[in-house]
Design goal:
Number of strands: 4
Largest sheet: 4 strands, antiparallel
Strand content: 15-25%
Strand order of the largest sheet: 3-2-1-4
Helix content: 25-40%
Radius of gyration: 23 Å
Order of helices and strands: EEEHEHHH
Distance between the termini: 37 Å
Number of helices: 4
Structural class: alpha+beta
Oligomer: single chain
Shape: elongated
Length: about 140
Amino acid sequence: MSNHLIYPIVVEKAEDGGLGMYFPDFPGTAILSLDIAEGIRKAKDMLVGLVLEKEEQGQSLPVPSVPENISLFDESDRIVFVEVYMPPYRNEAANKAVTKNCTLPKWLRDAGEEAGLNFSQLLQASIKEALGIKLIEKHH
C-alpha cells in the first residue's frame, strides 16, 4: 500500500471554454472544470476516492502510465500529474462514522430514549470494551 501516489491526467479544452479531464489509468473517469486550478482540486479528490475504493475492495492500484504511452486525441491536449499523499485521507476514512442497525426490544429502546441515552455512544463503548480497546482520555 503506497502512501505517495502520482498519476497522469489528460486535460482537454472543452467546447464551452472550460476543461475536460480524465485519468487514463482509471477508465470512466471524467472531470469538468472552469480552469486548471479547480480541475486539479477535483482530480485530487477523485483520485483519493478511487484509491480508497480500490483499497477497500482489496484490489491493486493500476501502475501509473508513462506519458509516451498515453494517446492524446487533440494537439491541444496536455498531460498533467496529480499527486496525493494518502495517510491523512485513510485516517479520515477509517474514522468516518458508518451506520449499523441493531435490534433491541421496544421497551428497552423506549426506556433508553426516555432516559436521554445516546445509543451510538453506548454501542461504540460496549464494542470497544468487548474488543479490549482502551482509549487514553485527555485531561486538561
